[in-house]
Amino acid sequence: MQMISLTVPVYNEREALEPVFEKVRVVMTAQPRPWEIVFVNDGSTDGSGEILDRLAAAHPEVKVVHFRRNFGQTAAMMAGFDFASGSVVIPMDGDGQNDPADIPRMLEKLEEGYDVCSGWRKDRQDNALRRNLPSIMANRLISAVSGVRLHDFGCSLKAYRAEVIRGVRLYGEMHRFLPIYAKWHGARITEIPVNHYPRTTGTSKYGLERVLKVLMDLVTVKFLEKYMLKPMYLFGLWGVIFFLCTLVFTVWSFYMRTQGYFFTMTPLPMMAVFSFMTGIICVLMGLLAEMITRTFHESQGKTIYMVKKTRNLGGDPAGR
Prior knowledge:
Blueprint: E1 4-10, H1 14-29, E2 35-41, H2 48-58, E3 62-67, H3 73-83, E4 88-91, H4 103-111, E5 116-120, H5 128-146, E6 158-161, H6 178-184, E7 189-193, H7 209-227, H8 231-258, H9 268-299, E8 307-311
Parallel strand pairs: 1-2, 1-4, 2-3, 5-7
Antiparallel strand pairs: 3-8, 4-6, 5-6
Helix pairs in contact: 1-2, 5-7
């Protein structure tokens, strides 16, 4: 019988942890399949680690991974995938805003033949201006650029068949694009509305700056999709464009000289050219750095996190 693995990144959520686990336990014990829940303590400083250790001591289905310091949500989610042993992996938030009662409906979708079932917080209980409106705009942009039509890429509550995410390596803030990576592996993706509760404990770890991160990550994802195996197509295209610009400006310079004008009369044309070229170089260097980072980590088998200790787990991640 298939094992179900739930993974929960945790950062300073001590007041929510026991209620979250109790809700999960009620839902998962009511279904027939074996299950486990992998909490990843992302360097919490509020005593969350002690609570997780206590839960692990009392419940063998609770697994805990303690990071040496805070590495961020993407690293914590990646560690959850690495240490999960189930054939179905379901990440969810540790703040109590996700509803574990939605999990059985997601499992039913996987039984219908889908590889990924994504949650859609249709009635999202967050600040409308700071969280909801930027999220709606970002989701529409991501759908348009990626071709993966989902209403809510940012919802952590999703169900994945393990085989479509085992080979995926996440970096930076890329966890929200995981359905896109799964699509690259040929996954069939569906979406269902899920419950979403207002936060009653702790504080949100995200603000409006997350929108800018989403835009930058989206550029990276689109680059990886189209040019990871053939980056010369992109770099070469811009090289041709700059050569053409050079030709145009050279011809224009000779023409202006025949009319008695010089570019040196005003710095604006040169400023525009240098600004444009500098912007392009920055973007291309950023994309090149993304490729170098992935090569560095994957060729040497390095992870983007460091584990301090674990509870109810072996020494090696299941997915490595």
